[in-house]
Each structure stands twice: as structure tokens, then as C-alpha cells.
Amino acid sequence: MNQSEKDIAAILISKGEEIFQAPPSIVRFTNDNAADELLNDIENYPHAFVLACVMDKQIKAELAWLIPHRISTKLGGFEFSILEGLSQDDVKDLMTKPESLHRFPDKMSTEFHSAVERIGIKFSGDSSLIWSKKPSSAEVVYEFLQFDGVGPKIATMAANILARELKIPFSDYYSIDISADVHVRRVLYRLGLIEKGASVEKIIYKARALKPEFPGLIDFPLWEIGRYWCRPKVALCNKCYLKDFCPKTDV
């Protein structure tokens, strides 16, 4: 790792640590107050968080994370006992009528129902058992991978949100990787940390090299830079706290 990479890594890690160490506050998953309250209430409705993670694919994240609340509104509640009594056809109706809650309602209905079944069978309806008792990060990621339709990206994202935003303690953070989304990929490339078109595996291992004990710590700082300043066509370099270290400030 050259000096430029070390300087960039130090700033990203410092920003990540600042977020990680911040006191708990409500996480704005959707910008809908009622929906966000449900998702943040992991003591009473931990399954809402898990089911939102399962839904978070192939549509905007804010829309995916709204699904538990929208189903709750239709059902008149989101207690697990209510969800457990739903058939797959019931879930499909909830996902499609009168409007579709997801771009792929049939597929997501199946995965939602499957997730409810798994929570009921494996965790006796209490999905907080996934992260209670200070498990290793690998255990948490593994448990999320057991849900139908959930791959490494969503599983590590879920673990990262639990640790970073919801302040759930793990025994370690080694297995919380970075999520190689478009914003993270763009910023890493412009910072000169990866080559253009780098594979997901290369992005993950670069983050592991920068912060081996908690690779996902730098995920949100990179995502934030990409979302708000390091835009695809017009980069607002003067607003970015890495502007003095970035070799691509002429983008």
C-alpha cells in the first residue's frame, strides 16, 4: 500500500469510526416516520428488519424497506403471529393488491413467505436470536445467507447496519465486508484504489486490505461520497472531504 492509499484509508476509517461510535439514533431507512419506527424497533419487531433485508433487491432501497410497513398497514399490525398465519397466496395478494409493492412481486412474495417460515421454524418467531448474545460477524452473515434470495451483498449489508447503525455488539467484525454497489465502485475507482471494471471480489479484498479487522467500516463513507458528491457525470469535488487526496478531481 503506497502513501496515498494509506492517507485515503486513514480518512475513510476515521469517518467510519465516527459513525460506528456515534450514539444510537433512529435510522432513516425510508424517510417515512411510521415505516422507520417499525424497522428500528428490533426489540419488538426484529422480523421487520430481517424481512426488509430480504426484500432489498432490484428496486430502490427506500421502496424495498417500505414493504414491511405497507404490509403491516394492510394487515392492521405486524406481529409475527399474524405473519405466521399467512399462506403463500395471502402474501402474494398483499404484495400485489391493489398495487404492486415490488418490481418482481411473485418472486418476492415467495421469498417473503419463505423468510417468515424460516424465522418461525429456526428462531421460534424471534429473529433477534440471529444477533443476540454477541455472536461473531461470520455467524450473523451466515444466518442471513440462509434466507432464500439473500446473497453475500445483502447478508453483509444487514450485518453492517446492525453493527454500525443499530449498535448491536458482535464479538468481531472481520466478516462484515464492503458492499460493491455502483457508488462504492465509482468512488474507489476515482480514488485510484481499484482499476476500472474491477470484479466484486477485487473490491471486497481491497477493503479487507485497507481495514482487515472490519472491512465494512468504510462502506458507508464511500457510499455517502458517491451518493452526494462523486456523481457519475458531475462530481462535486469541492464538497468532498477527500478532494485533496483524490487523483481523479478533474472528473
Note down, in words, how this protein is organized.
The protein folds into 2 domains: 3-22 and 174-239, Orthogonal Bundle (Endonuclease Iii, domain 2), CATH 1.10.1670; 33-130. It is 55% helix and 0% strand. It contains 12 helices and no strands. The radius of gyration is 19 Å and the shape is globular. The protein starts with a helix and ends in a 23-residue tail after the last helix. The model has no long low-confidence stretch (mean pLDDT 95).
Mean pLDDT: 95
What fraction strand? under 5%
* Main sheet characteristics: none
The number of strands is: 0
Total DSSP helices: 12
Uncertain runs with pLDDT below 50, 5 residues or more? Answer: none
How many structurally independent domains? 2
Shape: globular
Record keyword descriptors for this entry.
251 residues, mainly alpha, Endonuclease Iii, domain 2, 12 helices, globular
What is the topology?
Elements: H1 3-21, H2 33-40, H3 46-55, H4 61-75, H5 80-84, H6 88-96, H7 105-123, H8 137-145, H9 152-164, H10 182-190, H11 200-210, H12 219-228
Helix pairs in contact: 1-12, 2-4, 3-4, 3-7, 6-7, 8-9, 10-12
